[in-house]
Design goal:
single chain, 246 residues, alpha/beta, Rossmann fold, two-stranded parallel ribbon, 7 strands
Length: 246
């Protein structure tokens, strides 16, 4: 009789565990569908020349999407400032905050540079508001030789979090003349700070800009770097409105 009772509790526990797993992944699937629908609500200010870039970020594998959703579901349990998704409306609020911060500091910007891909996508909105031109620049980890793939993002994740030293290179340069100009450098997020440092050095040394003002929305490590970031929000996001691979 005791064996039957014990087996009953074991089977009940297994069924309950299976039910919770199904419930959890149903919730993940619901969130994925919601994110997918929100991504399509694009504002009119998006630069159409970046359409192919955005499509690549949206057409990643289902596994890659689920990993982002899982990360966005689990991380907020130990970091209340992290959210799953930044929609287009919230993104514009952050970009308006950047513009307000520039105005408060009395900074006059002559040109906006967006770091591909996220920084490039948001740079046109800010440039239009400031009534200046914008350019795009692409940098990449030297080991990928400017041909980073989806699986490389997953492989690189552990080294990002342990702070392993990485070297970056400029893959797509800026054609515009920035000599003597005040340049705002935009990216959606910063982690190790190496990408931003590479762009800052390039714009200062190669393009001979007068002053550079780096601004990001998310500082994942909540670190200070050897350069001042003019703006970063307290919020951090797992998925951005243009897609998954950042």
């Amino acid at each position: 009789m005791k064996t039957v009772t014990r087996n009953y509790y074991i089977y009940s526990a297994i069924l309950f565990a299976v039910f919770l797993i199904i419930l959890f992944f149903s919730y993940v699937y619901f969130l994925l569908q919601w994110v997918e629908s929100e991504i399509q609500n694009r504002p009119s200010w998006i630069d159409v020349s970046l359409e192919e870039t955005m499509q690549k970020k949206q057409n990643v594998s289902l596994l890659f999407k689920i990993l982002h959703i899982l990360f966005g579901v689990l991380v907020p349990f130990y970091d209340s400032n992290t959210e799953l998704f930044c929609d287009w409306k919230q993104l514009e609020i952050h970009l308006d905050d950047i513009i307000q911060r520039l105005n408060e500091k009395g900074v006059k910007i002559d040109h906006v540079v967006g770091i591909k891909s996220g920084g490039a996508i948001i740079s046109k909105y800010v440039a239009d508001k400031l009534n200046v031109e914008c350019s795009y620049i692409k940098v990449s980890n030297k080991q990928y030789k400017c041909n980073k793939k989806e699986e490389d993002f997953i492989k690189e994740a552990p080294s990002r979090w342990i702070g392993k030293k990485r070297e970056y290179m400029v893959c797509e340069e800026i054609e515009e003349n920035l000599k003597g100009q005040n340049v705002l450098i935009l990216d959606e997020q910063i982690s190790s700070g190496v990408t931003m440092k590479t762009v800052i050095d390039y714009i200062k040394k190669e393009k001979e800009a007068k002053l550079v003002y780096p601004a990001v929305i998310t500082n994942y490590k909540k670190k200070k770097y050897d350069y001042d970031i003019i703006y970063n929000s307290v919020k951090r996001y797992t998925v951005w409105p243009w897609g998954y691979d950042n």
